[in-house]
Amino acid sequence: MALEEDELRARQMPHSVEAEQAVLGSMLIDSRCVPEVIERLRGEDFYLRQNREIFETIYSMFNFSMTIDPVTVLEQMRQNGVYDENTSGNYILQLMDTTPTAANVGEYVDIVRDKALLRRIGDLAGEMTSMVMEGGSSAQSVMEMAERKIFSIRQGRAAQGLEHISSVILSVYQRLGELAASESAIPGLSTGLGDVDAAISGLNNSDLILLAARPGMGKTSMALNILLHAGKYSGKSVVFFSLEMSREQLAMRLISNESFVDNKKLVTGRLNEEDWVKIAAAAAALNQTQILIDDNPSLTVADMNAKCRRVDNLGLVVIDYLQLMQSAGGRQYAGENRQQAVSDISRALKIMAKELNVPVLCLSQLSRANESRSNKRPMLSDLRESGAIEQDADIVMFLYREDYYDENSENHNLAECIIAKNRHGETRTVELQWLPEYTTFSGIDRRHEEY
Question: What string of DSSP letters covers 197-241?
Fold first, then answer.
């Protein structure tokens, strides 16, 4: 009989009753432990239902700034309907009696977290096994599912699941506190262009930002401007997926941007001594950043997602450009179904932005529809294979230069960044200065410094 019991215990999912009880006991003995525990644990991390109910009661009390002690916790359990007249009071006393000291709460939390992680890994292994045995899924889809869930586990959040509004509100409060304490005037990453930042509140986590224009307007140049600024000043890793230009071409552009050496000189190699000094300084500055470049022309969103999950301290993803990407899952569409392919890609990009919790800036081509209009400024309907892209993007920006169409235009090298969709504020047009010799954009005030 004893052997059977041991075998049944061995088949239980990993957990530590003692560690769970010690965490709860520490919170009841010394309420100063509560913020530390709540920051690192969630209700689902507790294996025993009784322990989970007590933790969730304390969690909700903490959210509402209520006093936390054995008496108030028991009263709140009564109100929540999780109080048992026969056992709850005695169990709370037992928790406090069996906890050696609240000073070691960090170590108890580590044990509970480790066991919870092992259980999640076990659940994932079971899910993978059942997908394989059922035989309805491809190897690629099983790997993508596993990779996505492993990433969620690593990030310390459930891959999916319902979350009570109280915990969401706590996250919002924490975010508001961070913003209030921050010296930055915008909540997101800066683009390096002050007027654009003001209009879109910077590049915010989980946003899909679309930058679209006709060929030759400077989409890649603006994307590299933003990438370079974020790489230099955010302290985070920034990733550039180039499906069009090679790594060397991109590096050349970045050096030109940073050094203010004419791009034509770099392409031809006709450099004087002063240029070499500037290039050396620019290269040294770029070496200090965490700018990562991938120029594989046949990537899918799933490939990009997998690569980004392995990047530490990721801050921004830039993709150049959407119409060159292969559809999600590698499906090949006939020409007339290209709209469906782009729809799949844009949806997958928005999901990627949410999963990675970083801004994703994606470049896009425009159709020729604007060429036939007298006012050639782009509109949302000009997006190639539109509809889904417009719907999935949080922000849509167009680039427009009048002198591109009219060489005699008075607005020489003046660019317009048209914000056509903005979930964070109003739509408007921001004027920028285009510096063609350095393939870069700057704020309009820079024009006056040139004279």
Answer: HHHHTSB-TT-EEEEEE-TTSSHHHHHHHHHHHHHHHS-SEEEEE
Same domain, residue pair 99 and 226: no
Partner residues linked to 367 by β-bridges:
none
Residues 157 and 194 in one domain: no
Band (pLDDT 50/70/90 cuts) for residue 329 is: very low
Q: Reduced to 3 states, what is the DSSP secondary structure of residue 316?
A: strand
Given 183, 212, 236, the domain boundary residue is: 183
Q: Which domain holds residue 347?
A: 188-450
C-alpha–C-alpha distance, residues 20 and 110, integer Å? 10
Q: How far is CA 262 from the centre of its chain?
A: 34
pTM given for the model:
0.64
What is the rounded distance in angstroms from the CA atom of residue 57 to the CA atom of residue 78?
Answer: 10
Average pLDDT, the chain: 77
In whole angstroms, give the CA distance from residue 152 to residue 323.
29
Max CA-CA distance within the chain?
Answer: 95
Structure tokens at 43: 């209700």
Give the contacts of 248 (CB within 8 A, at least 6 positions apart): none
- CA-to-CA separations, 385 to 65, 117, 160, 307, in angstroms, rounded: 51, 43, 31, 27
Helix (H) or strand (E) holding 7: helix 2-10
Question: Does the pLDDT of residue 86 top 80, yes or no?
Answer: no
Residue where one domain finishes, among candidates 183, 206, 231: 183
What CA–CA distances, in Å, run from 148 to 41, 144, 198, 281, 314?
A: 21, 6, 34, 40, 16
Q: Give the tens place of pLDDT for each residue, 348-365.
A: 788 888 878 888 888 887
How far apart CA 451 and CA 445 sit, in angstroms, is 11
b/e code 306-317 from CB counts within 10 Å (16+ = b): bbbbebeebbbb
User: For residues 343 and 120, what is the distance between their CA atoms, to the nearest angstrom?
Assistant: 33
- Dig out the tokens for 76 from the structure: 């709140």
Q: Answer whether 285's CB lies under 8 Å from 233's CB.
A: no
Are 213 and 108 found together in one domain? no
Give me the helices (H) in 240-337, please: 247-259, 263-268, 273-287, 301-309
Task: Identify the CATH number of the domain in which residue 414 sits.
Answer: 3.40.50.300
307, 415: one domain: yes
Asked if 141 and 25 sit in the same domain, the reply is yes
What's the pLDDT band for 161 if we cut at 50, 70, 90? Answer: low
Contact status, residue 35 vs residue 63, Cβ threshold 8 Å: no
The answer to whether 61 touches 68, Cβ cutoff 8 Å, is yes
Q: Which residues pair with 430 in a beta bridge?
A: 417
Q: Which residues are catalytic?
A: 244
Q: Higher-confidence residue: 386 or 105?
A: 105
Average pLDDT over residues 324-331: 57
